[in-house]
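>> received
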Amino acid sequence: MSIRIYKESYFEASHRLLHYKGKCFRLHGHQWRAEFWMEGDLTPESMILVDYNLIKEVVLRYDHEVILNKDDPMVECLSKFQDVVLTDGDPTSELLAERISSELEEECRKNNINARVVKCRIWESTSCYAEWTP
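>> returned
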């Protein structure tokens, strides 16, 4: 039997868009909202598709982190003081939607959970989000 679930989670993180012409070129932070729609087969023993806490744990990998393009010259400086989450390309909401979805699906595979992300929204403000669907 296939079933679909929804989970919403939040994280605080800063980023900057290296190749953007405007304010977002500067390092700044957001309260990000992550929404996931997942679909798959229930685990017969637990009757759960995916533990909501697993989804939250994946999202919280980004909580209170600095997220930068791996080619950003700030990486070298900031890495002296703290870990930096590196991305292939500018860390836009579009990129994060695909990346976090992929990480969540990888966690499902590692845990033998037959589930996949069917839609993900990453909100970087109350009025704009990126939506990823495979």
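>> The chain has three helices and six strands.
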